[in-house]
Design brief:
Elements: H1 2-7, H2 22-36, H3 53-66, H4 77-85
Helix pairs in contact: 2-3
EC number: 2.7.11.1
Keywords: ATP-binding, Cell membrane, Kinase, Membrane, Nucleotide-binding, Serine/threonine-protein kinase, Transferase, Transmembrane, Transmembrane helix
InterPro entries: Kinase-like_dom_sf, PERK1-13-like
């Protein structure tokens, strides 16, 4: 839903202007927007740049975390709500953890991180299985 709000696009394009679903189309744009802070390619052009860029960055970070391929890697909805309200740091959405880790962040997420080389730019594991 966040992607629909950000982009102004429907989840599935019945006119076939988008070859992929909204999620597939948006993934690389979300990564780029998070890296550069430039939302021009992603944001609904009808807004004509009339939005708070800090709030948009917050929405983009939440949307990106919410569409990770692995459901286990996605934050809980309560964590997204806290992040959107500004009650949690956006970095807390990107905590990658072992399921058995007992350290807990302010959002209730474990805090032990894997090496960033084990993940792609969307925060999903490169290899589905770990030895």
């Amino acid at each position: 839903m966040l992607l629909e709000l950000i982009t102004g696009k429907p989840p599935v394009d019945l006119t076939n202007k988008m070859e992929d679903t909204l999620v597939d189309w948006a993934r690389p744009l979300l990564d780029r927007a998070l890296a550069t802070g430039n939302h021009d390619e992603l944001v609904d052009p009808r807004l004509e740049g009339n939005y708070d860029h800090g709030e948009m960055q917050r929405m983009v970070a939440c949307a990106s975390a919410s569409i990770r391929h692995s459901a286990k890697r996605r934050p809980k909805m309560s964590q997204i709500v806290r992040a959107l309200q500004g009650d949690a740091a956006l970095d807390d959405l990107n905590v990658w953890v072992k399921p058995t880790d007992s350290n807990i962040s302010s959002l209730g997420l474990p805090t032990q991180e894997f090496s960033s080389s084990e993940y792609n730019s969307s925060g999903d594991m490169q290899n589905q299985r770990r030895s």
